Amino acid sequence: MSTSAVAPGTRLAERFRLEDRVSESDGATLWKAIDEILARPVAVHTFAPDFPRVHEVVTAARAASRLTDPRLTQVFDAAEDDKHAYVVSEWVTGETLTDLLANGPLEPERAAGLVAEAAEALAHAHEARLYHLCLRPAHLVWTTGNTVKVLGVAVDAAMYGLTTDQPALDDAEGLGRLLYAGLTGHWPGDEEEGGLPAAPMMDGHFCTPRQVTAGVPGYLDTVTVRACLPESRKGQGALSSPAEITEALADVARPMPIPISYPSTPAVASASHSEGLDVGHRNQTTVAPRPPAPRRPQGGGSTLNRVLMTIVVLLVIAAVGVGAWTIGRSLGSGTEPEAQTATPSATGSTSSTPTQTVKPAKAKGFDPLGDDGDEKSDKAGLAIDGKPSTYWETQGYATAELGNLKKGVGLLLDMGKSVQVSDVVATLGSTSGANVELKVGDAPELGSLKTVATAKDASGKTTLKPDQPATGQYVLIWFTRLPADAGKFHGTIYEVVVHSPGSA
Q: 6, 493, 432, 32: which is closest to 259 by C-alpha?
C-alpha cells in the first residue's frame, strides 16, 4: 500500500479508520485513527512500498506487543502483506519532557522521579531483550492520566535501522541524558534536541548539572555524570543499564497522580515515529516564592510580643477560674460531675483508634460474573506495589454500567490470613463517576464477601471505612459503575492501602 493510496477515511483490518495525518518521514506516515470496535483513538503507522525496513518494524512491533508494563506504550496490531503494512499502537495524551521544560528546568526531585519511572519500565523491556536505543525528550511523556509513558521501545530503533553491541549501556546513557535535560533544561549533545539548547561546555567537556543549574542535589549530579558524562566521572563507575539507573534512583519520590486541567482541544504533535501523542499545553501557574523566615528580634522583645503574652496569661487564668467554678457547683449540688467526654460512637471510636498498614499477600483482577473469572490479573500487582504511578485497570466497557454485561467487577486482595480491616484507602483515576464497594470475607467468592462500605461518584484518593472493623482474609474493591476514559469506561486503581486496628 503506497503512501499516496492511503487517505483520511481509509479502514485497515476492517476496524482502524485513519483520520488525521500527523507526520511523514522517509516513507513512513503516522496517523491518528479510530478503533471502530473499541471506540478509542489509536496511532497507526503506514509505510510506502519502497520503505526498506518494513519487516524489521513489524517484527519489532509484534515483540513489543507482549510487554505488559503500563509505562510502555502498548502495541495493538502489526501486519505485513502484499497490500498492507502497518503498526497500530496506543494513542498517548499528555506532555513530553520537551513541553515540561518549556519554562526552564524541572524541580530536581520531579525530574529524577520521571526518569526513575522510565528507567524501571525500560529495565522490564530489557528483561524481554527489547531496547530503545534512541531516547529523546519527546519519548518521555507525563500523561493526562498522571502517569509516565515511554514511547517507541523496539519499534523506533527498527524504523531508524539502529543496532548496537551494547544496548543496555546505550539506553542507560539515554536515560542519563533525559535526567540531564530535566535538571538543566539543556541537552548534552552537539546540537539542539527538541528545542532544548545544547549543554554548555568547559574545557571541551559538557558541564555537569550542578555547574549549569543551582540547587541540583549532589547525588543527582553524580547519577547523571555516571550515566552519560564519562569525562567527568573521576574514577566513578559507569551506570551501564536501566536496571542500574533504577537502583541509583531507588529512593527518589515518584511523581504522584494529581488532577490537571487540560484544554478541551489539545494540539496534536508527533512524539515518536511509532506512536501518537496529543500534547495539551497546561495553563502556566506562577508559584509564589516562599516567604522569608521571620527574623528574630534583636533587642529585648517588641511591645506586641509583650501584649500577646499578657493576653495569653489572662486567658489561662480565666480558664482555670471557670473550671474551678464548674467543679464547685457540681460538688455543691451533691451530684457527680458530668463526664467531660461523651461516649464515642462506633465511627468516632474507629477514627480515634491507632491503625497499622497491612500488606496484602497478592492481588488479582476479580470477574466472577464474566466468562473466565479474570480481569487483567497480570497487572493486579501494580495496585499494591507501593508505587503510585503504576496501576491496575478493568477492561474497557461500552457503558458506565459495564455494558450491562454484569453487575460488577473488581480487584481482590488476599491478605494471607484473616485480618481486621478498619479502612481501605484506594487511589482511583482522576475522572469522577466511579461507584465502588468495599467487601470483606473469608472466601474468594462473591457470595461470601460482605459489603461493609460504599462510595459513589468517587475519584482520586478514596477512603472506604466500615462502621465497625470488618474481619476476613479477602478484601475486594468492587466497581459497580465505571468512569469514562477515552471513549470507553474503565475502573482504575493506582494504589490500595489496607489499615487494621493497631495498639496504642
A: 432
